[in-house]
Amino acid sequence: MIRVRFAPSPTGKLHAGNARIALMNYLFARGAGGEFMLRMDDTDSERSRPEYAEAIKRDLAWLGIETDLYEAQSNRYPRYTEMQEKLIANGRLYACYETAEELELKRKILLGQNKPPLYDRAALTLSEAQIAAYKAEGRKPHYRFKLDSSVMAWHDMAKGKQAFAPDNLSDPVLIRADGNPLFTFTTVVDDIDFAITHIIRGDDHISNTALQVQIFTAMLQAMGKDDFTLPQFAHLPLITNHEGKNFSKRDDAISLEKMREQQGVESLTLAAALIRMGTATAADGTETLASLAENFDPSAYGKAPPRFGLDDIRELNAKILHHTEFDAVRERLAALHSDAVSEEFWQMARQNITYFTEVKDWANICFGEIETQIAAEDKEMLAHAITILPNPITSDNAGAWVKQTGKDTERKGKALFMPLRLALTGLSHGPELRELLPLIGYDRAVERLMESV
Description:
Elements: E1 3-6, H1 16-31, E2 35-40, H2 50-63, E3 69-72, H3 77-89, E4 93-96, H4 100-112, H5 128-136, E5 142-145, E6 152-156, E7 160-164, E8 173-175, H6 183-193, E9 198-202, H7 206-223, E10 232-236, H8 256-261, H9 267-276, H10 289-295, H11 314-322, H12 326-336, H13 343-349, H14 359-367, H15 379-387, H16 395-409, H17 414-425, H18 433-440, H19 442-452
Parallel strand pairs: 1-2, 2-3, 9-10
Antiparallel strand pairs: 4-5, 5-8, 6-7
Helix pairs in contact: 1-9, 1-10, 6-7, 15-19, 16-18
């Protein structure tokens, strides 16, 4: 069975870029009948916060992403220690005692000699006496993974064949001097233990994947898992802002929470925009999560990073709402106004809004109090209109009423429609009165016309 994972760090709020990767994984899994795992990469104890973890769960639920498995890395330290010891025993993880200052000096010397700043593996030649001396100084080792000579290669579902020569890479640090394991290490342990079959992530992780191909192999050997197949990878371009800069968790304007609660973006709008951008198929407002899952293909994306901004999805948000059925918004309508919970009201409102928050304005127009100013020369016409107003009002007789009012008062065009619209809705523009009048109702329409004369 296909199983994917989304592994955010709970150090801030999810933004549009995070959402795109989460959606890609979820849609890929659902399209293949697979499972989606949410894993909190919360080993950064200084920056990780429980409130951010809960916010991530809320954001994913809002997007329509259902979690099949959940785990937090902070619960798995004993497992990481176990695997650390196995790799040390197999000679693939080795202790290093250089300080950060010493490593930086080595780096500068190599750069000054026009050489790549690769680690020289000096730690492998330390004598027992040297190690003892370092320990006596109070130095605590960090641990590096010893790369072997094999080329790190894989077929990327998005980018095709990828290959990295180990000669061009330093042995990566997997365990810090404070004992905390790094992402490059923990994620491989978890991906093996939870049988992750496919990893879809940003192309900024390609170099990490190159290292992890060898780390996967070394860990599987240490575990004695000869039958485990390495996950398949897909690396996709990250989205950027309009200036071409990467998003970060400090970009509050494009946090999912703000888009949802303050800017009124529909979850399906965001999903459709994020999944379609960078492909040859533009979102048209008819998308559903099911259709996006059915058609999701990691190889369909171009190489250039798509640019994203809230203004880009304004028109799409309106289209999504235009295609949204009444049952999907029934509860949201009830929260605005009890009279708004009707299919007739939603059919009218959804054609005249860009964001759902605007429904409240239409609810007030149809069922609440309005303010308007009527010119003195229009009051006689409105007084006559009251006398011929049909009861009950329907979409059919509402149109006939307007025509009859015009005939009786010898008015037409703007001189007829504008006073009626202002008196009944308080607006000089909007849907046809035959759509609004049945919602306003006879009693409220009479009351508003009476107040206008």
